[in-house]
Design brief:
The protein has helices spanning 17-29, 43-56, 72-80, 92-95, 97-106, 117-134, 147-164, 184-196, 199-205, 225-230, 247-260, 282-299, 302-311, 355-373, 378-381, 393-402; strands at residues 7-12, 36-40, 64-67, 82-87, 109-112, 137-139, 168-179, 233-235, 239-243, 273-278, 328-337, 344-352, 385-387, 406-411. It has 413 residues and is of the alpha/beta class. It has two domains: 7-144 and 357-402, Rossmann fold; 147-355 and 406-411. The longest helix is centred in the last third of the chain and has 19 residues, at 355-373. The chain is globular and about 55 Å long.
Length: 413
């Protein structure tokens, strides 16, 4: 690290809902040798947060405070002082671009926790080359969108490669259990995309392989008619499955990893990924399919969007900490090997607690992987640039396990 990089991590947006939880994770669990700063526009709020952090862990030195406006001109000097900028400020389509631009210009690693794939598609195309030229990483969707899905597939592919010496034919991932509410930032991000991009831009950027550096495999089989029309899928291991609200960002990022690892050859040249949510029966799956379709169509009607803004949580709000103990997120995924005999592997991801605290863990441990083990990551061998969470590899997986996240994989048969 050059001498002018006075911070290991700058946490931008630290006083927001997710940013505050991310700061709390660092204060409570990260080695005290970390040099970090909390950053944002409001000096008073940052000072109040620093005081709260001191109460969480009195023995840890407090982070430095950086007051900065959300413009490239203001952010670039701050980015030059940091090894990594981790931003939790959303909606990213509204506030995120200057941060990417500043990090690209400063040659600074960049991490965010967005699920706004159209915005990611936009900034990755515009700035990915600058990060690669500097040998730095631009890692988006490094929270619950899309780390659990991306790492489960990485584990399945790695295990099948090590066990059978071949690629993967297809992976089906599923949310098996979910309990907890959403924050105002999540709602604002979803609504903001429809105001930031045209319908044609959204359609192009939300294609399954939009983020992949390699073209999609040829002649992939589609989903069964029952799944396409009614949203119902049955799997002997995963159960009755319905549409997943996380499918679009997660499918895009998994397919990005597919393309990054050997142009698709390591994952498998006939690889196909899909994601669903487990439900109790087929009728529920049909109801979920209909409700999600109606909501999606309604979002394109301005009066509907206007009404929703008043009924969803507001930016800065989110589930109360008192309820975190009952929150959970559990995924299970299965993969079929692309060789004979066609064996099946299964992988699990689980966390008990707040989705948003989990997002903080995922993003911070990604940053620490870069700080501690950058040269051991596949992303480093790829030369940097726009890369996926999975390209942080086994070092990242092991850090998350130590942080209390369940991640395991094995052969089913």
């Amino acid at each position: 690290m050059s001498s002018d990089r006075v911070y290991d991590i700058v946490l931008l947006g630290a006083t927001g809902y997710t940013g505050r939880l991310t700061a709390e994770y660092i204060q409570e669990h990260v080695d005290t040798s970390l040099k970090w700063a909390i950053a944002g526009r409001n000096s008073a709020k940052l000072s109040n947060l620093a005081g709260e952090l001191k109460h969480l862990n009195p023995d840890r030195p407090l982070p430095e405070i950086e007051v900065v406006e959300q413009t490239r001109a203001a952010l670039e000097p701050l980015a030059r002082k940091a090894h990594i900028v981790l931003t939790t400020i959303g909606p990213y389509a509204k506030y995120g671009t200057p941060v990417v631009e500043a990090c690209a210009a400063a040659g600074t690693h960049y991490i965010d926790v967005t699920g706004e794939t159209p915005w990611v598609y936009d900034v990755a195309r515009k700035h990915g080359a600058a990060f690669k030229a500097a040998g730095k990483f631009m890692i988006s969707q490094c929270g619950i969108d899309s780390v659990p899905s991306d790492l489960l597939v990485y584990l399945l592919v790695s295990h099948i490669r090590a066990t059978l010496g071949c690629g993967v034919r297809d992976v089906i991932n599923s949310i098996q259990e979910v309990a907890g509410g959403v924050s105002g930032g999540t709602s604002a991000s979803a609504l903001g995309l429809l105001e930031a991009y045209s319908t044609s831009q959204l359609a192009e950027s939300m294609k399954p392989y939009a983020l992949s550096p390699a073209p999609p495999p040829a002649d992939l089989p589609g989903e069964a008619l029952l799944t396409k029309v009614l949203g119902v899928k049955h799997d002997p291991v995963l159960g009755v499955l319905a549409d997943s609200p996380q499918a679009v960002p997660n499918v895009s990022m998994v397919n990005c990893s597919w393309g990054l690892f050997g142009g698709g050859k390591w994952y498998g040249e006939r690889f196909r990924y899909s994601e669903f949510m487990r439900v109790s029966n087929s009728l529920v799956a049909v109801a979920v399919h209909g409700a999600m379709a109606a909501l999606f169509l309604g979002l394109f009607i301005p009066p509907v969007r206007w009404l929703l803004k008043y009924f969803v949580p507001q930016p800065g709000d989110g589930p109360a900490k008192e309820g975190f103990a009952s929150h959970k997120l559990i995924y299970k995924a299965v993969a079929r090997a692309d060789c004979e005999p066609q064996r099946t592997a299964v992988a699990n991801f689980g966390y008990n607690g707040s989705f948003y605290y989990l997002t903080g863990i995922l993003a911070v441990e990604a940053a620490l992987t870069i700080l501690k083990s950058e040269d051991k990551t596949p992303a480093k061998k790829m030369g940097g640039g726009f890369v996926s969470p999975a390209t942080l590899g086994d070092e990242y997986v092991e850090r998350l396990k130590k942080a209390g996240i369940t991640l395991n994989v094995g052969m089913l048969d």
